[in-house]
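Practice problem: predict the structure.
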Amino acid sequence: MSNRPICPSCGGGNPPTLTVCWKCGALLPITTHIQQYPLPASNNPTIPAAPSVLPTDFQTQPTSVLVPYQPTYTHTSTDTLREIAQAKSKQDTNHTKTGIVILTISYTAIAIIIAASITDLLLGLLAAIADLVAIVGGLLIVVGRGTFGRAHSRNAILSVSLFIVSFGTMVVGKVLFAAALVLSRIPNGTITYGTTTSSTVNPYIILYITSMIATALIGLAVVFLTYALHRKTGRIILSISYITFLILTILMTALVLQGFAIRSSIILDLSSLQELRSQYEIVQLLTIIPTLAFAFSFYLALRRINRGEIPESTAQKTLPAY
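Answer:
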C-alpha cells in the first residue's frame, strides 16, 4: 500500500509529510500507520491491547476570541454641569445680595450719625464702626463677583485696588505728619509746646490733604463696586453722588486748612474761627445727601437682583459643546 495520502478534493497524490494538499490546499487524511512492537515475554498473562483508532479529522482546541481594547470615557453629564453652574450662581448671588444689604444699611447709618454728630461729637465715633461694617459688605460683593459678568468682576477688582491705594495714602500721610510735626517742634534743637505758628501748620496741611486724597479714592472704589450692576439711571445716581461727595470733601478740607491759617496768625480772630466752624458744620450736613444717594443706588442694584434681572443665566455658557 502506498503511504502517499490522496487528496479527497482533487485526487492528487501528496508526500507523506504534508497535511494539506499541495494543489488545492485541502486537508489530507492521516494515513501514517503506527508500527506495533511485540511486548516482552513474561510469565504474567497478557492483556490484549485495544486497537488504536486514528482520527480522520483534525481536532482543534477552542481558542479565545480577541476583543479589541475599548477605553472607557468618563465625562460629567450635561445635567451635572448645569447643577454645578446653578449652585455656583446661587452662592455668588447670595453673597452679593448680603453685601449690598450691608452697604445699604451702613450708608444709611452713616448719614444718621453725621446728622447726630453735630450736636454730640461722641456719636461721630460710631461712623468708624459703620465704615468697618461697610467694608465687610464690600468684601462679600467682591467674593460673589464671578456670576455677574466680566465687567462687574473687573470693576470689583479695581475697587479693591483703589481701596488698598487709599489705605496706603492714609498711612503715608500720617507718617509724614508725625515726622513733620516732630521737626517743627524742634526749631533750634529744643522742643517747644503750646505754640501754633506757620511751621506747625505745615504738618496738618500734609495730614488733611492726604486724607482728602484717600477719601476721594475710597469714594471712587465705592462707585466701581456696584457700577456694572446698575442700569443707566443707577449709574447716573452713582456718578452724581460721587462728584457731590468729592466737592464737599474738598470744601471741608479747605475750611479746616483755613482755620489753621487763622490760628497761626499773630492776632487770633475768634469770630472768624466761629464762622468757619459754622460753615464746616453746614458742609458736613450736606454730605448726608450723597451718602443717602449711595444707599439708594445700592437699593436699586438689590432690587434688580431680587427681580431676577441679574445675574444672567450662566448654565448654558458652562456646558461643553458635544
